[in-house]
Amino acid sequence: RYHTTFRPAPTPEIQARLRQNPRDKEENIQKRVENYYRNVKELEDFYEDAFYVNADQDPHAVFEFIESCIIKPLPYKK
User: Fold this and answer.
1) Which helix (H) or strand (E) is 45 found in, with range?
2) pLDDT by residue (tens digit) across 4-40?
């Protein structure tokens, strides 16, 4: 699999043969994003004890954060 930005095809010949997945077209992505925003509030209400995890960091730091939230959750206002 190739990605136009992160992992482009190695040669122009291969790039010419590539096809885009129909699910990845802009209008389909837009529908999925709209569906997400339409339902996100209900999900937040249902999972009221959930917490936000910034997973864009070292895996050990993510694990430590999750563990600390489970063992001794931080107090918060509702």
Assistant:
1) helix 26-46
2) 889 999 999 999 999 888 898 999 999 999 999 999 9
Distances (CA, A) of 55 to 12, 13, 37, 58: 35, 37, 21, 8
Residue 54 CA to residue 62 CA, distance in Å, equals 7
Residue 6 tokens, joined:
């992160």
**Containing structural domain, residue 34:** 23-70
Asked if residue 17 belongs to a domain, the reply is no
In a domain, 76, yes or no: no
Q: What CA–CA distance (Å, rounded) separates 70 from 58?
A: 19
